[in-house]
Amino acid sequence: MPANINNAMTGLDPLLDVFKLSGEPFEYLNESDVHHALTRQPIEYYQFVKQRLLNIAQGHATLIMPPKSVFTDNDTNGDFRIMPCIIEDNLDITKSVKLVGTNVIQECVPNQITVGKACILHPTENFITHIVEACLLSSARTAICAMLGIDLLSINQKKLTIIGAGRVGYYSAFYASALNWFEEVTIHDVDATRAHNCVNALKTSFPNIKYRVCLKKSLPDTDVLILATTSSTPIYSINDFRAQLIISVGADIDTQRELDDSCAKTAPIFVDSLDTARYGDIKSWLDNKLINEDSLIDLFTLLRDNNLISNNNQSRVFVSTGTAFFDNISLSYILKTL
Asked: What tens-digit pLDDT sequence spans the chain (338 residues)?
């Protein structure tokens, strides 16, 4: 007897009486929700991230983070990535998975290189409690990662230069300004209009800081340089201008580069996590035997022992290719703001 006839005779609805589905309640957070949550109290956000990383480094919190899986579209250099992470900090357990793509073609979703969602799971029942747009989440947490690099590694904090005035570049300037670390912020972008728009938006929020847009050939020596681009070729050499701390956060796949090989030869190399060695500039340097993987120092090692940093004025390099624990901690902070 066909199933629909049997159901009509018995009056049973398989959705209710057989499958017994309960439904899984979840909240959806759009890009505006994410932006406001991560910019409303920027100092608090930064301190939250730093403290949780310190808790992990000191063994007061546990981190489970397998290497991210990257699946590349060989014909376009696009990709999608799966980035799971669990952090247990006392009674606060955050389970997260971010599924994002690198949108090179940008036809269906124009003007957005990062697409995808992040999911927060229930700590014990493992259903998805929150679905979060991942574009601005990824950009803001990358900028916060750069702030950790500045906090732990900078020699002086007066002049900041940022190459790349996109989302990560804006958030980097925003958080550095909110933390009141720099007197001058110089921004360069191949799109001069985008650079000016970025500066004008920042001036509204931080009128006491000196911002300016500069051509690349005119960039002066600086205390901290942040590279936040999607470049496929190196865009900074130590011969271009002097930077005491060089932070690269843009080259996060094998086809992207931001740092000239000269940076590998003359500066100690720090990374957000050792997973960074699998991508971008660090992978290229390892493949070409310019550096040894054993020489890389990650954030947790730095947080445990700040004496690893030499006191001389030699330039330092900090590289991030995107790490799931920054997503996880940022999502945990967002939950606290809801």
From this structure: 444 444 555 678 888 888 888 899 999 999 999 999 999 999 999 999 999 999 999 999 999 999 999 999 988 889 999 999 999 999 999 999 999 999 999 999 999 999 999 999 999 999 999 999 999 999 999 999 999 999 999 989 999 999 999 999 999 999 999 999 999 999 999 999 999 999 999 999 999 999 999 999 999 999 999 999 999 999 999 999 999 999 999 998 888 999 999 999 877 899 999 999 899 999 999 999 999 999 999 999 999 987 777 667 788 999 999 999 999 999 999 999 99
End-to-end, the C-alpha distance of the chain in Å comes to 52
The backbone region for 245, taken as left when phi is positive above 0, alpha when psi lies in -120 to 50, beta otherwise, is beta
Neighbouring CB atoms inside 10 A of 61's CB total 18
CATH number of this structure's domain 143-322, picked from the four choices 3.40.390.10, 2.40.37.10, 3.40.190.10, 3.40.50.720: 3.40.50.720
Q: Torsion angle of alpha carbons 285, 159, 242, 197, nearest 10°?
A: 70
DSSP at 294: G
In CATH, which of 3.30.230.10, 3.30.1780.10, 3.90.740.10, 3.30.930.10 is domain 24-136+327-336? 3.30.1780.10
E strands in 19-74: 27-29, 61-64, 69-73
Model's pTM, two decimal places?
Answer: 0.93
Please say whether the dihedral angle defined by the alpha carbons of residues 177, 168, 82 and 129, taken in this order, is positive or negative: positive
DSSP category for residue 14: I
